[in-house]
Amino acid sequence: MNSAENKNLVLAMVLMLAVWLGFSFFFPPQKEQQPEGVQITPVAASQAKEETVVNDKVAEVETFSTAGETPVSENVQTSAPAREITVETDKYQAVFTTEGARLISFKLKEYMATSAKDSAPVQMYETGPLRYSTMRTTGAEGFGLSEGALFETATASVVSLNGQEQLEILFKHVAANGMQYVKSFKVRGDEYVIDMALELSNASQTPLRGTVNLAMVQRWDDSMEGDSYSFSGPATLVKDEIEEVDVDDLKDGAVSYGQGLSWTSFQTKYFLSVVVPGDNTVERILLQRKGDAIENIMETAYFTLQPGEKKTLDYLVFIGPKEPAQLKAAGHQLEKIVQFGFFNLLAQPLFTVLTFFYGFFKNYGVAIILLTVVIKIIFWPLTHKSYSSMKSMQKLQPEMVKLREKFKNDKERLNKEMMQLYKTHSVNPLGGCLPMIVQIPVFFALYKVLLDSIALRHAPFAFWLTDLSAKDPYYITPILMGASMFVQQKMTPTTADPMQAKIFMMMPIVFTFMFLNFPSGLVIYWLVNNLLTILQQYFIHRKAT
Q1: pTM
Q2: DSSP character for 229?
Q3: What is the pLDDT of residues 126-176, one digit of tens each?
Q4: How many domains is the chain partitioned into structurally?
């Protein structure tokens, strides 16, 4: 073989390795996951002393209370039992409790934990110990608030909201030192957004000074990590950039952010909980791991309330799916949460076109097929030119054989004559692989869309394909894809070099095994693309003859 053919052979091998090894690097196999349920729990923060943070890594968080100190906010009346308030909306069921004025359950009605017909809704929060409690606030010194403090509310035990109906739940608590707390949750029937506020009033005769914190606490174990590429863990928007922290990194110490804070979140592949503090509400956000819990702690600065003075701390809370339209409607740049990683530049327009087609047909399988047609039309001229180049190369084989025989002892002269032959007949020896190489970034970008988009989660196509984000349970589509690739190879002009021909013939087998565990939506894309390529090759061949 001459140098040009060597390049073609190497290019073919690189093509397979780029998809096989490259895919393994960028997209490791997905780990077995538990039924979907984020179980994210905003709770009371660990109370920390006012301190200067030199590094982003903080070894530990000290508590405000000194040894033997008694919390000043013990409930004045402790005999009344805790009461639960259930709010039913079109999108979720939320359960609040008067113990700590916290949220103890949040179920997403539109999203099931699994694709099974009898699956329960996704449960965003688990009703575990107090340290996993949701949206529970704590304070220190003059604003001390015990974790189990009982609040009072006049809201009925069960409330239903439809459409744009709204409800404000007020929880009130009076501490022994005269500090009054009014915690409110404004919920809407058609949104995942909850407006939360904490009003502090100094009803005593002396100034009170302290700090108030809010935290999200997520129970964590290694089985919750999900696949190795999609991010699961705490993420904070700092100076308009999302800072993601790997849970394993928190084993080495806490991470602190002190300037340019916008919001903090805990997210998995498809769901998240976000807290957006109001202006001048939070001085520092601390991320730390304590045992089997991950804490996003939002700390206020120390402040003083004079007798009769009030102060309100505002928070916007979003609990729900990572759905771009919903996040954008909530504001505060929450749409930045939905990213497709390294291939985001290609993935975003692919997702836009995909959702456009879905709007017409209400079936993502059909939308994927139509998207494939669009991509094929875009690459049609390149594929046509490539196929024509390969046909021309095939016609040159007799002359190439003669040149090899004539200059078999002079490789430099052989390479020169081969290049002159290609130039004379306007043939690109590397043209055969170019269409597939160019499509590899599109392939990876579409993979990210199908893997991470909430829209494709449990989205059915037809027959046995009930979840386009999961692999084909019967491996029918990967086998059909491999068969179509084999037919495509048979229709492709052959090369005189037997080694190169063998490598190309191996590709359908390699790709079939690769695609066995790919999302079925991605396999459909590649299968339809192959069928369209076969059709294109048929017309080119028919026109040539």
Answers
A1: 0.77
A2: S
A3: 655 555 667 878 888 888 887 788 999 999 999 999 989 999 999 999 998
A4: 2
